[in-house]
Amino acid sequence: MPLFDVYPLYNVTPVSGKDMYVYDEKGVEYLDLYGGHAVISIGHSHPKYVKAITNQVSKLGFYSNAIQNPLQVELADKIEKLSGCKGYELFFCNSGAEANENALKLASFKTGKARVIAFNNSFHGRTSAAVAATDNKNIVAPINAQQQVTFLALNDIEGVKREVEKGDVCAVIVEFIQGVGGLDQGTAAFFEQVDALCKANNTYFIADEVQSGYGRSGKFFAFQYYNVTPEVISIAKGMGNGFPIGGILIHPNIEAKHGMLGTTFGGNHLACAAGLAVLNTIEEEKLIDNVNVISEYFISIAKTIPQIKTIKGKGLMIGLEFDFEIGDLRKKLIYEHHIFTGGASNKKLIRILPPLTIKKVHVNQFFEALKKTLVPIEVEK
Prior knowledge:
It is a single chain. By secondary structure, the chain is α/β, with parallel strands linked by helices. It folds into 2 domains: about 15-45 and about 285-380, Aspartate Aminotransferase, domain 1, CATH 3.90.1150; about 45-285, Aspartate Aminotransferase, domain 2 (3-Layer(aba) Sandwich), CATH 3.40.640.10. It has 11 helices and 14 strands. The strands form 3 sheets. It has a 7-stranded mixed beta sheet, sandwiched between helices. Strands 1-2-3-13 form a 4-stranded mixed beta sheet. Strand 11 (about 310-315) and strand 12 (about 315-320) form a beta hairpin. Belongs to the class-III pyridoxal-phosphate-dependent aminotransferase family. Keywords: Aminotransferase, Pyridoxal phosphate, Transferase.
């Protein structure tokens, strides 16, 4: 049976990985500066991670949410401790799309309203409400388009005010650093005014931290750079280091009701073991401190390269923007220098989303390869 052909594939077949590197079936080593869409947070095959999920699956891999699962409580307590989000409650699911779907559903349940405000170039997932709030008409089917979503420009505070004050908006959903959209950010004043408008108009402010969360921005959550208090925070990608797990943090003012949200696989024993291994490693290895050290070093070098016109993002969620489309550049980095990087809807921007364990030597390896690759491109121009 052939695979349904929805992914354009690079001709690389990874079969194993260790920390910052993956290896193909021929033993060729690739430096991973993309982490499989920012998923690999503590490095490939981290020994503590491997041990934790191996031990758990040897005992019990799964049972439903109809029984007690102390691992869920332990993981929730660990997230509260490391994130500083005191008093929030946690609902587990399996992915970022599912996290945002439940965040939007919860907002609609609790406010009794249906319309959503999202922002230009946003990406929130591929499930029904989440994809409707994603600014990409190519992936929104007619059944999704029935959702009521208004798209505005980042920093358009007058637009947000006008729409929210109409009284029918259940949620404003925002990436504090846009991912697929190209690493753009709103201003502090914008985010803080949006938060105030939401509070004044019975509207939920949803922080989509699926890609920017878990230390990637240099803080545990990217919204923590601002004076805002989201009603709901969605998390996923870096949460399980490759094991599917997601969730939403829910403000303590929001009351739960049996049956309101549900999931079969969310928060299963194996997922929680993976999640705990990730957080324990982030804490023990001081990986958020490392994010900030390496980010400063990376950006200092990027500023010396004249072909890089703009540096976007925070922490280890970095965008390098050129004045030409970078598809061929990324292919050269993969096939000639064996380095994985990411693209974006902005075709002139490379996304850098490495494991949080990255060291300066890896940064040097990247920039040495980038400089060699840029020389022939300059000649062609």
